[in-house]
């Protein structure tokens, strides 16, 4: 596939998707939304997939929506921003969370608006030390979208989520890690290498089991204890029937490194 606004490929079970509109800090326009959706189609159809690495090109990860793509002509009515969410952002967030493989996000610079919340929809977020996170919606009279009002309070608590959303203050990568919003801060020049190393590691692990872990943790926020215990039982039953479980036990008993197939 040929793309104009993203870089995308799958090799060795690892998919790499880079937002590639660096002159506009990788902000989303309709063209990029459509190309990312095509990449997601390919990911969902690939039964060899074992990990996704998402990042951005240039000096920023993603500045959210390209406002020039929504410019209102004089005399025209107000744009339907709900349509933009329904057609593009919401499906992307849902598809990322539902991928049955680990999703790593390497935030290489500023993440603003929907760009922050795109990162928060991923499973493991690494950030360059110079990166920053800005819930910029309040500055133009909008509501944090793309899952922002759902992820933020669950990750950092209501008080901090409210402050970030109402004030639009810039959060440094170090603060984001201290608050539990992201997984880890990496020196700028080491971010790409560490993200690749993490992707390679995850792609060698028991993929089906990792998918069940994701499913259980996501469900825990809405389940009571009894429901979660039942879910753990059901997922453990399914995990125990995988080839990777048998390989993991055999490798442990034989004192060797397991060779997981992802099945």
Number of helices: 10
Query: How much is the average pLDDT?
Result: 95
Largest pleated sheet: 6 strands, mixed
Number of strands: 10
Strand content: 15-25%
The total tally of domains equals 2
Query: What is the assigned CATH homologous superfamily of the largest domain?
Result: 2-enoyl-CoA Hydratase, Chain A, domain 1
Uncertain parts: none
Tell me what you see in this structure.
The chain has 263 residues and is α/β, with parallel strands linked by helices. It folds into two domains: 6-203, 2-enoyl-CoA Hydratase, Chain A, domain 1, CATH 3.90.226.10; 207-253, Orthogonal Bundle (Lyase 2-enoyl-coa Hydratase, Chain  A, domain 2), CATH 1.10.12. Helix content is 45%, strand content 16%. It has ten helices and ten strands. It has helices at residues 30-45, 81-98, 114-120, 148-156, 158-167, 173-178, 191-203, 207-220, 225-239, 243-253, and strands at 6-11, 14-19, 51-56, 60-62, 103-107, 110-112, 124-128, 132-134, 170-172, 184-186. The strands form two sheets. It has a six-stranded mixed sheet with strand order 1-2-3-5-7-10, with helices on both faces. β2, α1 and β3 form a beta-alpha-beta unit. α1 packs parallel to α2 (81-98), α4 (148-156) packs across α5 and α8 runs antiparallel to α9 (225-239). The longest helix has 18 residues, at 81-98. It is globular and about 65 Å long.
């Amino acid at each position: 596939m040929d793309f104009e606004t993203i870089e995308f490929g799958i090799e060795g079970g690892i998919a790499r998707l880079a937002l590639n509109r660096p002159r506009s800090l990788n902000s989303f326009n309709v063209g990029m939304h459509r190309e990312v959706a095509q990449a997601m189609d390919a990911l969902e159809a690939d039964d060899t997939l074992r990990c996704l690495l998402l990042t951005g090109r240039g000096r920023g990860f993603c500045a959210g929506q390209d406002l020039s793509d929504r410019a209102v002509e004089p005399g025209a009515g107000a744009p339907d921003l709900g349509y933009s969410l329904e057609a593009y952002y919401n499906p992307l967030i849902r598809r990322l969370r539902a991928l049955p493989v680990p999703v790593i996000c390497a935030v290489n610079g500023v993440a603003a608006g929907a760009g922050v919340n795109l990162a928060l929809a991923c499973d493991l977020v690494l950030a360059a030390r110079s990166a920053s996170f800005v819930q910029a919606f309040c500055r133009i009279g909008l509501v944090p979208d793309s899952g922002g009002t759902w992820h933020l309070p669950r990750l950092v608590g209501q008080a901090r989520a409210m402050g970030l959303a109402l004030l639009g203050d810039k959060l440094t990568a170090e603060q984001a890690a201290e608050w539990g919003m992201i997984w880890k801060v990496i020196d700028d020049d080491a971010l790409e290498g560490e993200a690749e190393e993490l992707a390679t590691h995850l792609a060698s692990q028991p993929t089906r089991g990792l998918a069940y872990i994701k499913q259980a943790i996501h469900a825990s926020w809405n389940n009571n204890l009894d429901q979660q215990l039942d879910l753990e039982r059901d997922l453990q039953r399914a995990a125990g029937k995988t080839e990777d479980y048998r390989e993991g036990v055999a490798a442990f008993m034989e004192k060797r490194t397991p060779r997981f197939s992802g099945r």
